[in-house]
Amino acid sequence: MQPRLSTRRLARIAPNARTALAALSVAALLGACAIPKHPDAEAPAPDPFNPAATQLLDDTSWTLSGWKDADGKARAVPSADGSGPITLTLSTAAGQRHASGFSGCNRYMGSYALKDGKLSFGTLGGTRKACATPGGQIESSYLNALTHIQRTGVQMRAPQQMQLVLDNGETLVFERSGEAGK
Question: The whole model's pTM is what?
Fold first, then answer.
């Protein structure tokens, strides 16, 4: 026959059991909140031409960092040479998709769309000053390129890049330069 626990003795054990149960519950919750680590931090980057990746372009800003002709030959891209780098900002601040930037000599603006994994632009307007700088020499080619995008690649892992592959085989490469304001 087992001895019975008195009510007094049970009252002394119950707080200890509650404390132990509370400690175990807290430990379990903390363990559940731990962020798992990817087993291979060197895993290859996801496919930048995945159509879903273009949805990440809203409210971003980019700087043109490279331009390759269809044969792979690099084209000179102006940077901070006095006229400034060529830029592209994609914003949804006004509730509509609005593109703007600097095209080498002038500011430009218009609408953009993201459909079927491709970035496209509506009619682009801009200022009309003339420039004899390297940016002024590439400006019309750049603005024309924006109307001939065949594929759009987006890489949001470092280094963050966007690639615009044109229907003539040329590729424009942009580096992420910051967030567009919402």
Answer: 0.72
CATH code of 143's domain: 2.40.128.270
What does the pLDDT look like over 53-86, one tens digit per residue? 898 999 999 999 999 999 999 998 887 555 789 9
Q: Is 128's pLDDT higher than 80?
A: yes
Residue 142 lies inside a defined structural domain of this protein: yes
Domain count for the chain, please give it.
1
Q: With respect to residue 44, please indicate whether it lies within any of the assigned structural domains.
A: no
Residue 41 inside a domain? The answer is no
Please state the rounded mean pLDDT for residues 154-182: 88
Is the backbone peptide bond immediately before 159 cis, with ω within 30 degrees of 0?
yes
| Residue 94 lies in domain | 51-179
